[in-house]
Write a structure and sequence with these properties.
Layout lengths: L1 H26 L6 H8 L3 H13 L4 E4 L3 E4 L12 H17 L2 H17 L2 H8 L17 H10 L1 E8 L5 E13 L4 E7 L4 E6 L3 E10 L4 H11 L3 H6 L23 E4 L6 H10 L4 E4 L10
Parallel strand pairs: 8-9
Antiparallel strand pairs: 1-2, 3-4, 3-7, 4-5, 5-6
Helix pairs in contact: 1-3, 2-3, 4-5
């Protein structure tokens, strides 16, 4: 009896490990080494090799080999794992945020997703999802002339946008931009785009976009490459040399070359510092500022 229980428990653990490995491979778009996977799963590299072979035998299109790395090709689906209580909390909270803090189309999509999620959950987990243990409070948001759905559509379809933009002094300019991504702050929404007028990346507050039209012209370059170049533009020269790839959080004036919104407030920062806390504070209070990026180290401690 003990031997049967042990065999059952071992089988369940291996099945769970295979599912976990599959989920990890789904997170990586480029080949990932067995050593990296083994470290995340707290198992040996040999175990990863055996589990990869098992998944391949089940039909998973995992390409690669030992010493090079593995990548999972899209299209392979296994029955979903049951959500843990914490995972369900994260999903529910995220969907509730989308329902309350996004545009009507995205809000309706979040409601539909939440209904679909509730329809396939067991009764006990469905009750946990609906008991509102975690809620999203109301927040002050800027009124917008342009529907965010139009901006999202341009990003998804990789099309150019013609916009009329009003700056902080009330001056309006017409521009053609290549939309890259849309950032959701607590009170503002920012469109990151390449501006043909300025020939550089710019961050446009959605509440200052007076009008926008979706153009027939497609982006000259794939959006994923624009995202890569935008992230690089947020790094200092020393960050680029060191291979540091984490961008600093975007804000109202994240480009050091951007014209100053206020002469009296300068935010000195570096992507690797804890200045992100101050950055969020400036965004929350809506205080005009400009950013100057310092080299990481001694320059940050200077007066």
């Amino acid at each position: 009896m003990i031997w049967q229980q042990l065999c059952y428990h071992t089988g369940v653990m291996r099945t769970q490990r295979l599912f976990d490995l599959l989920q990890m491979l789904r997170r990586y778009r480029r080949p990932v080494s067995a050593a990296t996977l083994a470290g995340e799963m707290s198992v040996s590299v040999r175990t990863v090799y055996r589990d990869i072979a098992a998944l391949q035998a089940m039909g998973a299109e995992i390409e690669g080999e030992p010493g090079i790395g593995y990548v999972l090709r899209p299209g392979f689906l296994l029955p979903p794992l049951m959500f843990s209580p914490t995972e369900l909390d994260a999903l529910t909270l995220g969907l509730r945020w989308a329902i309350r803090r996004t545009d009507p189309d995205l809000s309706a999509a979040a409601r539909n997703a939440m209904a679909k999620l509730g329809a396939v959950l067991p009764v006990d987990l469905r009750d946990k999802m609906e008991d509102e243990a975690l809620i999203v409070g109301s927040g002050h948001e800027m009124s917008q002339s342009v529907d965010l759905a139009l901006l999202r559509d341009a990003i998804r379809r990789e099309r150019k946008l013609a916009i009329d933009y009003r700056d902080e002094k009330g001056r309006t300019s017409s521009r053609v931009v290549w939309p890259v991504t849309l950032a959701f702050f607590e009170t503002t929404r920012l469109l990151v785009a390449w501006c043909e007028l300025r020939q550089d990346f710019r961050h446009f507050r959605a509440d200052r976009i007076v009008a926008a039209d979706l153009l027939a012209d497609r982006l000259p370059r794939p959006r994923r490459l624009l995202v890569r170049d935008w992230r690089k533009s947020l790094l200092t020269e020393s960050d680029r040399r060191s291979g540091y790839n984490t961008p600093r959080p975007i804000g109202r004036a994240t480009n050091a070359r951007e014209e100053s919104m206020a002469k009296d407030l300068v935010f000195y920062t570096n992507p690797q510092s804890r200045a992100v806390v101050v950055h969020w504070m400036l965004e929350e209070v809506g205080c005009p500022y400009r950013i100057e990026v310092l080299e990481f180290g001694a320059p940050m401690k200077s007066p």
